[in-house]
Amino acid sequence: MEYDLKQFETNLKMWNITLSDIQKRQFITFYEMLIERNKVMNLTAITDFDEVIEKHFLDSVSLGKVMDLKGSCKMIDMGTGAGFPGIPLKIVYPDLKLTLADSLNKRVKFLNDVIEELNLEEIEAIHARAEELGRNSDYREKYDLCVSRAVANLSTLCEYCLPYISLGGKFVSYKSGEIQQEVDDAKRAIYLLGGELDEIHKFQFGDSDLRRSFVIINKTKRTPKTYPRKAGTPSKQPL
Q1: pLDDT in tens, 110-142
Q2: Where are the domains of the chain?
Q3: What is the dihedral of CA 194, 145, 152, 149, to 10 degrees?
Q4: Closest CA to 200 of 215, 185, 188
Q5: Is the pLDDT of residue 184 over 90?
Q6: Nearest 10 degrees: CA dihedral of 223, 227, 232, 237?
Q7: DSSP string covering 101-158, please?
Q8: What residues pair up with 63 in beta bridges, in sequence order?
Q9: What residues pair up with 99 in beta bridges, in sequence order?
């Protein structure tokens, strides 16, 4: 089947991103695997090619609009689900050293199949809850960057994500809609977990109605050993 990537390429060029033929094939293969596996498990409600390109691939890669991801940055994608934003970012920025973490083993198996099929290197997919992995010394405060496109309030996401980031690193939360109240409500959590709000980037994709906000938090102090709390607590009792 023929796929038209012209609009995708046009949008990426506005962010100074040009895809090689290999990268184009990787995106198409990822799409085909996503749709095929989606028939037997719930990976995405969006299946139309153009919509997946815009709402999953372009949206994931849009982080490159506001951050320099070139070079060997060590990144973890927490609650990655079907691989967003991690896999598209890895395709575009192959030098990223990437960990994909998700709490559902079926999704992790799918991600490992994608990693193998796309011949991606320096990437791993891990089956784990954020609260448990965040206490593992092999992962705690080992990353330059943590990203999350997961649906949860910012206070909860900070407790999931800030423990992974080394001093001087960043946590970026992909958000949509009106977020100022959510950011205000998360200020205590950000402080307690060793973070400091850096900035909020808001933009939309050309003529599309798709809008995105990036909440960028700097890691300025070590996360206290009491965090993250036991599994389930951050979502039920946000800081």
Answers
A1: 999 999 999 999 999 999 999 999 999 999 999
A2: 70-236
A3: 170
A4: 215
A5: yes
A6: -90
A7: EES-HHHHHHHHHHHHHTT--SEEEEE--HHHHTT-TTTTT-EEEEEE--SS-HHHHH
A8: none
A9: 76, 124
Residues 6 or more apart whose CB falls under 8 angstroms from that of 1 comprise none
Cα–Cα distance, 173 to 78 (Å, whole number):
10
Per-residue pLDDT tens digits for 34-86: 999 999 999 999 999 999 999 999 999 999 988 989 888 999 999 999 999 99
What would the mean pLDDT of 190-218 be, rounded to a whole number?
88
Tokens of 182: 């959510």
58, two tokens: 């372009």
CATH 3.30.420.10 fits 70-236, yes or no: no
CB under 8 Å to 81, separation ≥6 — which residues?
43, 102, 107, 149, 150
User: Which amino acid is located at 139 in the chain?
Assistant: Y
Long-range contacts made by residues 211-215, C-beta under 8 angstroms, separation at least 24?
211/176, 211/177, 212/59, 212/62, 212/174, 212/175, 212/176, 213/174, 213/175, 213/176, 213/179, 214/63, 214/66, 214/172, 214/173, 214/174, 214/175, 215/154, 215/172, 215/173, 215/175, 215/179, 215/183
Tokens 């095929």, located at residue: 36
pTM of this prediction exceeds 0.70: yes
